[in-house]
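Task card 7
Instruction: Convert sequence to structure tokens.
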Amino acid sequence: MDRIVFQDVGPQVPQKTVQAAQPVAHRAVFTLAKMALEAGSLDSLYFLLVNDTRILVEFDNCFLVTHMGGHTNFVAATNQTSLNKKSEAYREITKLGRELKSLTKPIAPGTEQDILGIADPDFPDSAREALGHYLHFSGCNRLCYIPLMHEGEAMGHLVMEFFSEGMPDRIAFEHLIAISPVFGAALAQRWVLHKRPELATMTSTKPLEQKGLMSSKKARYALAAAVAAILLFLLLFVVPVTFSVGGEADIIPRDKHLAFCKMEGLIEKVFVKEGQEVKEGQVLASLDPKDLDYRIKNAQTQFDINTEEMVILRSSAEEDVSKLAESRLAELKRQSAWLELSYYQWQKQFIEIKAPVDGVVVTKDVESLIGKKFTPGEPFCEVVLPSELWVQVEVPEDRVCYVKPGQDMWVYLNNEPLKGYKLKVAEIAPASEAVERLGNIYRVKAPFPDAEAFAKVGLKGVGKIETRDANLWFIITTRILKHWNKLMLYF
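Output:
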């Protein structure tokens, strides 16, 4: 291969030293050629060209520019696993590579003065200026390039930088130039196989029978892929599936039965606790009677005084007629005291707070209410009927439109996740509620008449409502579009 050399070729090496070094250089050349031809991938070949070639030429930095496919690309550099395409160095090397594309002669390592002094008709001024500009940009002392030729065209260029003052070994550089066509051929082959992997079978050493077997396998794979595509189409668009909606479920009482406090007072005693079964009319708690007893006693005393006063005034009315009118006034006071006494005595029946129905107390820590002051009409505790249990499912707002009364609901309680209970939707809340973690939900309720003995209020699970038959494509696209619409709110 013709090459451009400079007058400064370094110090002369003794002949004996050259002869002693040649076997080592030859082994390195053969090793590099073997490694290049056996490179398993295009990236492995790139790595070899910019790193392993240092066993011949001790450069400081090396990069590879390729020209295949009609494009010039900076593809690899020494000790760099990936290239930063936004960096200034990437732009400068790519610009230099475009100028080197038409150059087929290598140049020996030279300084800026050497490059500017090249007098070769095949070396254009634009390339000379580009090399000089890159020398200034990189800050290296010497620069050289080697075209990787294949069938008369440069597949790429290896560009090497030297920052030391001395001249690199001339013999090693000539060995690298001699092996460059092998690199060019390997680069061309690997690039073609990278673009068209199926061409690798063209050079296979397997018998034709095995190739036919591979073709039949490919045909079977293609048939299997076609069958899978048809099945997928049928599954997505033809086969009906049940469109189920649902959410978290829990057991609730059908109605809330509250035991109210019917008069003002302090709780003195509590006779029940959470989870205890009670009968209708059973005393749950009692108020402190001291205040009411005091009022009754005071009203009784006032009634007795008014009675005595009325009797005395009537007995003295024969002597003084005016006493008769006073006795009438005392009688009215006596009647007022009697009404007040009767009211207090009637209130005494409400000292005890009683259960409104047969059921179970579900109020938490009800026994801790001792000493609390209640007002008339304030609920003391809640009693539920075990035989009137319902299931409540929290359905997201975007799916409640598919739910209607009478649809089947399957409930799986957490204590028996494999057993489902089939219920019927009875009620749908008219308005949504904001629930932490779940967002806006609608409460859908169904009676639970055949509840097991272990079923208790507050037991959690999962509820699924079978709304209608639909295809998988509808279900998938509906959910994707819902999230897409939410995402578009931010644009």
